[in-house]
Amino acid sequence: MNISAFFRLFQPKDKVFYSLFEQVADNLAAMSKDLVDGLKSEEAITEGFYKKMEDYEHANDKLTHNIYIELGKNFITPFDREDIHQLTSSLDDIADFIYASTKYILLYKSPVMPCYSSFASIINDSVLELKKAIYAMRDLKKPKEVFAHCVEINRMENMADDLFSKEISALFESNKEVLDIIKIKSILEYLEDVTDKCEKSANIIESILVKYS
């Protein structure tokens, strides 16, 4: 290895990592928006809609892989390698659980219930706040703005918890068949888990800011 190549290993790669995280945020925002649009109808979701969610999930997997490749290539990172790994993993979980939600709606042949759409709206709002937080993280120059977005994500997760409790209670009091109750409960759990993953990502971002602000 020549001397110039050696020194390149120690050059900060902030722009690479920030850019990749922003691409992940953009992909998640597009995915959550299409989730809202796809769950507006009360009919069963289509194969086409499911395929679109699958494509988003695969795109997120590729971006996640690219971040891990950059971690392996570079000694200097914008913040701790462990924090980068944790944030990458938590963002990937968001895509995974959105995809799983739509997969089981399709597999269970479940009609789209109004509560699915309500969860989709909270998910989309949470992801948009997460996107704003990630864009404001660049160079860690806007900590107050990032914190504000994280607080909003936490508030939305509480809304999702309340909605989940309400819908589960109503489900158990309904006249639906036991098998249908099991299917709907499973789907609601996946949808609620998405907001948990958004909150986890926000908590990781807050931890990074505490270390570096």
Automatic annotation (TrEMBL):
<dbReference type="InterPro" id="IPR052912">
    <property type="entry name" value="UPF0111_domain"/>
</dbReference>
<dbReference type="InterPro" id="IPR038078">
    <property type="entry name" value="PhoU-like_sf"/>
</dbReference>
<protein>
    <submittedName>
        <fullName>DUF47 domain-containing protein</fullName>
    </submittedName>
</protein>
<comment type="similarity">
    <text>Belongs to the UPF0111 family.</text>
</comment>
<dbReference type="Pfam" id="PF01865">
    <property type="entry name" value="PhoU_div"/>
</dbReference>
<dbReference type="InterPro" id="IPR018445">
    <property type="entry name" value="Put_Phosphate_transp_reg"/>
</dbReference>
